[in-house]
Each structure stands twice: as structure tokens, then as C-alpha cells.
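In this supplementary section we document a worked example of the pipeline. Step one takes a protein sequence of length 747 as its only input; no multiple sequence alignment statistics are reported here. Step two produces a three-dimensional model, which step three serialises into C-alpha cells for compact storage. The input and output of this example are shown verbatim.
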Amino acid sequence: MLVVPSILDAVTVHAEGALCTRVATVLTEGGRLPTQVRINGLPLSLRTGSLRASVLQGPPGLVVRDLRPAFDVQLPPEVDVPAEQRALEEAQARLDEVSAALLRVNRDLGAVTKLSFAFPPRKKDDFQPRGAPLAAMLSLTSLVDSETGLLNERRLDLERQKRDAEAEVELRRQRLNEASTALRGQRARVYRAAILTLSEAMPVEQGAKLALEYAVPGARWVPTYDLKLPRTLEEGTLRMRASVLQRTGEDWTGVRLSVSTADLDRRAEVPELKALRIGRRQPPPARSGWREPPPGLDELFSGYDATRLPPKPEPPAPVPAPQAVAEKPAAEPLMDTYAERRPVDRDELMSPTGSFQNVPPPPSMAPPPPMAPASAARPARSAGALPARSRSEAPKMKKRGGAPSRSMDLGGMDLMEAPEEEAEAAAFAPGGGGAGADGGALEERQAARLEPSDALLDYDRLELAPADDPGARGRLRPRPAFVTRELLALAAVHVHIDIAALVAVSEQEVSTIWQAPPPAWSVPPRKSSPHFDARFDVEARADVPSDGVWHTIPVLSVPVGLSAEYVCVPSVEARAFRTVRVENRTPYPLLAGPVDVTLGDEFLMTSPLPTMAPGSTQRLGLGVEESIKVARNTRFDEATGGIFGGATMLTHHVSVELANRLSNRVLVEVCERVPAVPSGSEKDIKVEEMEVAPVWQKRTPLPGEDPVEGERAWRVVLQPGEAQTLKATWTVKIPASKMLGGGNRRT
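The serialised model returned by step three reads:
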């Protein structure tokens, strides 16, 4: 089998997981393309059910006919071990060497320091004095001093080298831990692989290009933005960025990156639309993709059954002692096969004394023979499967027609039976239970209504029953849930490697992406766009290593409309706040996320941006503007009014002074609130706006902002160095015998 090289060309990061596309080049052999190729080096975390293959470039008629997942074990030579792993091993070897040398020096130093001169023992009766060997003693002392000095210098140097080696080992170990998960230090690595079967093609001189697509978990992204504004806030640029985190086991190097808000696990199959007909009910059309088993299927296994050894006879079961058998009344007719298989009433098995009786089964209750093929089972079903029931039971059967269909098993095939009401009506029709002309019509109608279930149309999960199973051999059936494609692919691996442990480790590494804290103010894509999906393509190729760390990648420049405004609510705080109105002028939505605002050449702040639909406008706060001065003064007057003095007039005077200390003109929105009359008190309380200069208007909140009852707003344009005073007067009229809760003053 030809192993073709491939490169990772494109990656689409979804809300959870990513969709990767590899491009492989297949070269010709003798002027022809191979019929089967293998693509190795796929990540261990990929989902085998997501494998897709197509032909990007090749001769006419070249298609991919089959695609199967497999495993691949690579044993790279020593020179292919990652550089960080080699550096760690070299540093560890250097540390071991220095430690061994230091141990030898310490041992030699201890031996040298123990050197000393000694005198031979003297006898008790020897009183003659002896001369001391001063030359030898001085020579030994000089030798010990010189060797001790050299060994101490060597020990100090080795201790310094050991400290440096320990620091180097720790540094290399940290770099290896921080490195990408795509680089491993093991001498053997297990990868996924894909085996592609190609169709026969005409002789060509050039090769073909194939695209392999697969999904991997362990990747996520969140949107972020970068807003650059001048000092005047008159214009600016907004760029969308994507913070991507992935731990899939392979590095994304120089790929065409895209980010999407769609759910990767969502089924996206084309729905099957059924025709709606007006008139008499017609049977549904047969589903495509299904073919009945061939007739005489069991005869194909006659040779196999002839070569098999007959099963050993089982020992006969012990015969129980004879007991008294209760006889049935003679007037009771003999039951047919259907009546024998109905549930037996408890009263029929009870003796007059109340004890159970041992009723042997009738001779006709023999074990049912093995189920015949579906083609042979249908005539028998039409002749004897439907019970012979009286016409008096027909109304009950029709009333009970709640379940439209039932499921039965014919030789390993899960088929859908015709509706019960139609079967009953056909049974009660003349000749419905026989095998004549009407019986044949009934058989044809029932055969037309038998359809395979969805499980038998999922060819990827079907398997052929073994020949040892007489009831299902030769037929396709759904594979058990515990037998996955991964287990089938493992059958071809003959290397002593714990694949299950490696897969478990890979899944554990994939799950660690949710432990990384997201950037501040970030919102998951599925939360900010629950009702729509959008895809954004990165303008340039990008690199995202598999290290489990957030990487910020510029996506595109967003054409938006920016207009600077200053908002002030003097009744709450006498300060002006900088804001920018952002209008989405793109045909796609802008997702919620943090915005890094740069004012001039300085970073200002990070502010949250809500989700913006196409054409919508949002306000982005940029903090306090100290160069705009705001002062608010109030005055309250209370007087008696009305024809006979039966009302109290509460007059409120508000004046707001604004001063622009900036070098450019500004637009300031000053918000005030007029007292609102609660519902049900319109007869007793009246609020009148007396004098307002300049004129204000009711404020319209932006999308996402909560409306405030009674809110008014001035929109004032101030030139550089200009000051202006805003005035407003309103009167609250209440009965003289009452007062407002909390005080009459409302400023």
C-alpha cells in the first residue's frame, strides 16, 4: 500500500472542536494512479466518524470509493527526537557526570585528610632516644597540603558545575512542559491513519490531489476586538480578533484558519420531504438504498453445514414423576395454533382446592423452527400470521388503532409491519385469510408496506452475520454498540503498545482546554449567538501550536460607523463620560466580546461589547473625560394654588452648567428625570413642565439598554472653550391635605 505525504491546509474552529482539512499528493506509478493509498500522521484525538475524502485535482472519473480509519505506529530514529527532549537528556547526562565526579573528589579528599605520620611502638625497656624523621614528616605534610588544596579547588569547581547543571535540567524540563503537545519525547508514537480506495482512472502523467477532512475535539475560541481611536474620537478602526486555544495533539502551522459559531456535533443532513397527496390514502413509496435478500439464501451454506461436525447430543433431562392431570370439559373445542400461544388464564391452572395443576402442553406446542429468509417468510405470514377473529371484535380493533405500526424481526432484519387497522380490515374481507386471489392481493399490499428501519440503512454501522448463526447468516445487521470502528481498526495493529491507555491520555489532555480561564469580558460564541451561526475567515495564514494556551489572531477589519458622544447624568454624578456609538455596517453580526481601546498611542482600557446584529448601534463606554466640567444647581419652591387654595404647588428649578476645555467641538448628552405619576394617582397628582431652555426631548434607549420612565435628555454641541447653562422647571400639583411619600422635594 502506498503511503502518501500530506500537509494540514485548512482548519475551521467551531464553538467546541475543530474541522481540519489535509491535502495529499498522489504520484503515478507506471503512468497509473494506485487504487489504494494510506495517509499517516493524523492526530490520535480525531473522531473516526467524521472522516471525509474528496478529489481536488486529478483525471476525469477519479473518485474516492472507500475510506477506512486505521492506526499507525511510528518509530523515529534518534535524530528525530524533538530538540527539547534531546536537550533535557543531555543536561541530565551532564548532571549525572558532574555528580559522579564530585562524589569521587569528596571521597579522595576524605582519604587525603586522613593521611598522618605515626611512630613505631617502643619497648618498655628501651630507653635509648631516637631521632625524628623530620624530612619525611615535612614531606608528608607538604603533600597533604598541596593535594588538599587541589582537591578543594576541584570540589568548588564541581559544585558550581553541579548547580549550573541542575538549573539547566530544570530549565529544559520546564521548556519541555511548556512545549506543544504535538512534540513528544517517546521513541514510539501512535497516530491515526486513513486508508483511501480510489477508482480506476485512465493513464495520466501527473498525479492527483486528495483532500481528507476530519473533526477533532480539544479546540475552542472566543471573539475579541481592537479599537484604535484618535484623541478627537472623530474616527477610528475596529478589528476583530480570535483568541484560539487548542490541545488536539498536532500543531496548526501555516493553515487557512476560520472560526465559526456553529455546533460541530449538530447533524446537518438534508431532510427527506414527503409528498402530500389529496385523495385516497396510498402506501408510502419504498425507501431507496435497500435490497431484499436473494432467494435460496440458505442453500448457499449447504456445503458449510455439511462440513461441520454434528453437535454432541445432550443428556436427556430427568422425567418428573407423573401427577394427576386435570381434564378439560369435553364440550370445549380444540384450540388452533394461535389460541394455544395466547396467555393462559390463572383459573384454568387452579384445581378446585386452590393448588396449581401440572398441565402439559398440547402436541402442537413444539418449538418454532428457524426463521426463513424474508422472501420466504412473507407468503407464510399472509396465510397464517393473522388470527381468525370474529366480526364482533372488529369495532374494538379499530378503536384501539392508536399505534400506527409495530416492529417485528424477520431473520435479523428489523422491518416495519403494516398498520393494524389495515391488516384487520383485510382479514375480515372476503377471502382475506385464504391464499386465493384476494389473499395474493393482500400479500402484495403487505409486501409493499414493509420497509427497512433507519438502522438497516446506516451502512457504516452494519456487519454481516457469521455463518454459525443459522437464523441470520448471509444478512446485514446493525453492529453492537460496544463494537466500534476503533476496535475494528485495532485488530490490524501488532505492536505491543497500550493503545487504550494512549487514547485515554489523549482524551484527558483534550478535556484540559476547559480548565484554562478565558480572557476578561469574553463570551462563548454559542452564548452570544444562540439563534444564528456565522463563520469568519482569517485574512492571512496563521500558526496555532497545540500547547493549551490562548493565542490571539487578527481576523479581519470591521467596517463600522463611529461617532463620539459625551454622556452626563448630573443628578447621579457631576461628570462627563466618553462614549462611542458603534454602528455595525457589515452583513454579518458582531459577537459579544472584550474591546481593547487605544487612544492615540496609549492603551486606554478594555470594555465589553454586546452582540450587534447587522445595522444595529451600540454605545461603548470609554471612561471619564476630565476636560468637560459639569455643575448642577437646584431650587425648590412650595406654594398654595388652586381656586380656593385647595392644592399645593411644588416647583422645581434645575440648572446645569457645562464647560468644554477640549481643543475640539464635542456633543454632550445631559440626562435628567422628571417625576412620573404612578398609575391610579392621575387625579391627585399632576406634573407640568413649565420652562425648559434649550428644549429637551424624551430619550430613546439603545438596544440592550433599560428604559427609564420620565427620562429627558439635552443634546448640546459645545465649541472649544465654550460654556453653556441648561435650565428646566417643572411643577408637581397635589391636594393641600396630602404630601408626597418621602418628601415633596423631587430634585
